[in-house]
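Progress note, sequence design subtask.
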């Protein structure tokens, strides 16, 4: 699937992951891919509301039903390949063979309904639970298809302390069939040397990707 680059406001995006934003702003997000994520562009700290075709705000879109036997499980025996984003000063390992798309402020790896997004932007200080809740989450809610917050928590990765935004969203409609999936999204926000980095993981709700996502998040390191 080709990546559709938008101006998300995300982290997410961006969502997020938040959605994602430009490569020079501060805020709680960095990159904003709309493909597979169910977000329609804008920068993480922004307040603009994205619209779906026909004028309806994507945030007002009803949640699609969760699949009873959701697709998207990543094979346990898949190999992982390290990728270094020199522009972001960060590296991560992702499943071998996944499609890759890059922008000046991020990179996205996608296979079927699973996506790994890595984004970065300049920032004056690290994100906190308070700033993510007051700025990042509202931006995601306004620009994500059928956004539903699961929780915002402080956590820690080998790369350092992080704020995790866990939410659900609708995927982008299939361009041929119009079918959408309900996605489970984990967006990690980190800070290092004046740069905010977001790592966002997307897969269908119910997919068993706990171990693969652990491998990806544990592999994140500063380059």
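Output:
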């Amino acid at each position: 699937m080709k990546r559709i680059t938008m101006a998300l406001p995300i982290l997410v995006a961006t969502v997020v992951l938040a959605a994602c934003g430009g490569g020079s702003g501060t805020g709680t997000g960095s990159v904003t891919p709309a493909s597979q994520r169910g977000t329609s562009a804008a920068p993480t700290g922004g307040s603009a509301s994205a619209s779906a075709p026909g004028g309806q705000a994507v945030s007002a879109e009803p949640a699609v039903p969760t699949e009873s036997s959701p697709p998207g499980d990543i094979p346990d025996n898949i190999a992982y390949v390290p990728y270094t984003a020199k522009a972001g000063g960060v590296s991560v390992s992702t499943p071998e063979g996944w499609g890759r798309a890059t922008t000046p402020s991020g990179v996205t790896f996608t296979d079927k309904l699973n996506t790994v997004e890595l984004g970065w932007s300049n920032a004056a200080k690290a994100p906190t639970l308070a700033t993510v809740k007051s700025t990042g989450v509202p931006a995601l809610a306004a620009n994500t298809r059928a956004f539903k917050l699961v929780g915002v928590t402080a956590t820690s990765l080998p790369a350092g302390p992080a704020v995790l935004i866990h939410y659900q969203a609708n995927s982008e409609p299939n361009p041929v069939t119009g079918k959408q999936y309900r996605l489970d999204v984990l967006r990690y926000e980190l800070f290092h040397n004046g740069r905010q980095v977001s790592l966002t993981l997307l897969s269908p709700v119910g997919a068993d990707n706990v171990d693969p996502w652990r491998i990806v998040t544990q592999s994140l390191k500063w380059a």
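The first strand starts at residue 80 and ends at 85. Work on this subtask will continue into the next period as scheduled.
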